[in-house]
Design brief:
Nonspecific Lipid-transfer Protein, Chain A, 4-stranded mixed sheet, 11 strands
Length: 432
């Protein structure tokens, strides 16, 4: 279906640039619609979206228009992203526009009234300064992602307040996200061999859910650290309300500042993605030093799979994730994670892939966000809610496709004589 107008002009231009039609219908601010893909429709609400793309013709230009509400999707967002995936990758991987292509773009922009000075980026876009992965910059990067209001995260994450991949050991309508997050926390505690009185360090403890679980269910003495002020305050209140202050504490500290080892176990859940490859040697060395001989480390993190290498991104441009979600974050292949732990002195004992579990977790969070959209917007901003809607839907597709994965790596600090204190046979509950 074509009704001309702005939609027809944009569709024609996109087809010339990509070499094929856009796999979505387009509807523009003038009410015109072009194409009928039998599915979702890309809605361009404002000429400002085109102006952004004139000045920033890449993923960031699209992201800014999305966050600002200048483009939207009418219909299923995941289906739209799936259809757009190849088109976006071809944009990221192609060279700069030729002079003739730039002239075509400019002619359409002039006709549509989209020419003008560059627009400011939405306030939700991260702008970091200082040396990358310095303590101050890391604190700012973490704050950008996490310090957006605990009410926002309560809406998205639900009562468990766990912001990492759940472990779905059940199914059906009676098995909830909270059940799956409880199962994940329990799996970690079992892998770490926690017993009453054992000292556990939770690096990047978030809102304290694992801290509370380990103290309440296993009688462990737990220290959690986070550089997010809002997370630390929230976790401290939860500990006090639970009557577990004698067993659990949360500090607003950087992992590099923890100096009261040794610990019997260390958990790092969803934290190592923030490190960056250059920090890994210091990270592995520090956690090794904090553990007693025979102590165990459980490192739970998202990784980049082989097919997830961004070989098509030839210019090293920022991505939506870099700019709006995890500034300074970096995903490593699982082989690199294992290698770096071994280089730090650890013996890796178990590697557990949970890729499909994270896709399901993300979709549960999306359902929570959709159901509580007004509350989420009130707690943060509409732009922030749009960031999370796009990030979670797109990430679910990336896990489905195997471009990214997530693994729990269980490692041990051996005794000087090589003893590991690990069981000879892997307990069945580690892999079920």
């Amino acid at each position: 279906m074509s009704s001309g107008g702005a939609a027809g002009r944009i569709s024609s231009l996109v087809e010339r640039l990509l070499g094929h039609p856009l796999p979505l219908a387009i509807r523009t601010w003038d009410g015109a619609q072009d194409g009928d893909a039998g599915g979702p429709t890309l809605v361009i609400n404002s000429r400002r979206a085109l102006r952004r793309l004139l000045w920033q013709p890449d993923e960031i230009g699209l992201a800014r228009a999305w966050v600002a509400g200048e483009i939207d999707v009418d219909g299923d967002l995941e289906e739209a992203l799936s259809r757009l995936d190849d088109a976006v990758r071809s944009i990221n991987g192609r060279p700069r526009l030729t002079a003739a292509e730039r002239a075509d773009v400019m002619r359409v922009a002039v006709v549509l009234g989209a020419v003008g000075p560059p627009l400011k980026a939405p306030v939700e876009e991260a702008a970091l300064g200082g040396e990358q992965h310095s303590k101050s910059r890391d604190r700012t990067a973490v704050s950008h992602h996490y310090d957006v209001g605990n009410a926002f995260f309560e809406t998205v994450l639900g009562p468990s307040m766990v912001y990492s991949c759940a472990y779905w050991t059940g199914d059906g309508p009676d098995y909830t996200l909270e059940d799956a997050q409880r199962a994940k926390n329990d799996l970690i505690c079992r892998k770490l061999g926690l017993e009453p009185g054992a000292r556990l360090l939770d690096v990047g403890c978030g809102w304290g859910s694992l801290v509370l679980h380990a103290a309440r269910e296993y009688g462990a003495r737990v220290v959690g650290v986070t550089v997010s002020t809002e997370q630390a305050e929230y976790a401290k209140r939860r500990i006090a309300d639970s009557g577990l202050a004698e067993l659990a504490e949360v500090r607003s500290d950087d992992w590099r500042d923890v100096d009261d080892g040794p610990f019997d176990a260390v958990a790092s859940v969803g934290m190592a993605e923030h490190l960056g490859a250059a920090q890994w040697p210091e990270y592995a060395d520090r956690l090794y030093e904090l553990l007693r001989p025979g102590g165990r480390l459980l490192n739970h993190q998202i990784v980049r799979n082989g097919r997830g290498r961004r070989a098509t991104q030839v210019r090293g441009d920022r991505t939506f994730i870099d700019a709006y979600v995890f500034p300074d974050g970096e995903l490593l292949p699982i082989g690199n994670v294992v290698h770096r732990l071994e280089a730090g002195g650890f013996e890796v004992r178990d590697v557990h892939a949970l890729r499909e579990h994270y896709a399901r977790t993300l979709r549960s969070w999306v359902q929570n966000l959709d159901a509580g959209w007004s509350r989420a917007v009130d707690a943060a901003s509409e732009g922030r809610a749009r960031v999370w809607r796009l990030y979670m839907a797109g990430s679910a597709l990336s896990f489905d496709a195997g471009r990214i994965g997530i693994h729990q790596v269980l490692a041990v600090r051996p005794h000087d004589d090589g003893r590991s204190d690990m069981p000879m046979v892997r307990p069945i509950e580690w892999s079920t």
